[in-house]
User: Fold these one by one.
Assistant:
Number 1:
Amino acid sequence: MKWNNKFTYPKSSRSLKNGFRHYLFNNNKLPSVTSILQATKSEEDKAALENWKQRVGHTEANKIKNEASSRGSSMHLHIENFLKNRVNESFFEENEQYKNMAKEIIDKGIKGKLEEIYGIEATLQNPEHKYAGTADLIGVYTGESVIIDFKQANKPKKSDYIQDYFLQLGAYTLAHDKVYGTKMKAGIILLCTKDILFQEFKIEGPELAMYQNLFLGRVKKFYEINNLD
């Protein structure tokens, strides 16, 4: 696993306005991938989320959401520190949940598979289609140029339940290809549940192209419903 600085990823600042996160590139403001996906959820998905909140109660729903967010942020940070050689193996010996989750992803999803790193927490923009986002990891994975996202979950996932994750990867790979003239081979999700179960999901070939196109449809919808150019 080595660093390869063949691409220069842009610096940007971020702002939150009207509930939407934006990336600021000089005078150019682009909505984030996650804000686009959140704003364009189907009525069915919105109803399912609301039904869950009603079932568990809004207080408990917020607690679960906040705990998951905190756990995910800590897990991401420790994976990032490992990739940047800021921590050694002994750091993960403490029996803390997010460290165990990070270690599971590192042991089963990174070691022996990740060959080169192009960028970590790399900002990507697509000026043509007017969106931006941050990819967890960009590099060479089992011989292919890919974009990887790290995810945590309360319980194991099926592909049907993580369509937004695949749309994120479609957005990131398309942005990278557009700006840098690459041909990203795949998008990969490395996921660990709070019970320390590892899962890997991969989209490539026609499936990756499908999610790229589906995301562009969501971008179009986002600009239409918000009366933006």
Number 2:
Amino acid sequence: MFASQSSFIMYDEEFKRIQAVLEKLLRESNSKAIFLVDKNGQLIAASGAVEHLDATSLASLTAGNIAATGGLAKLIGEKEFSILFHEGEKDNLHISIIASRVILVVIFDHRSSLGLVRLRVRKSSEELEAIFSDLARKIAEKEQKGESQSPFSEITDDDIDNLFS
């Protein structure tokens, strides 16, 4: 299970499904790298040539970018801009908001095109939205059963005191 600061828990089953969607998107869009980030700037998952990138900075800056453009959207009467595109000399970024809570970042170069990336992202977005919907349902069911979603809920103050005594 993967805990994120955005107040939800990522279970292994959903994480594997997300990773499979990202890997499929990477292949089908002929992209270099793909990141899934929460709106607080925490990296959820990544696929592709990510080893040469500072994923922590990318996640944080992407969330900041979404927040900044959200402010611009409100200024002109929009809720938010759901898709952003940044074109560079060698690499391009396609950024989209999924299920109103996570950000999909696709990095691609001349081997792909914006049209292909947009087409493949649209299909992947539907799959990711379904996964996050399943995750929300699973969390709600656990809460109804009285099961806490926190991985630390079973730790008591006495346990902490005993650990440091």
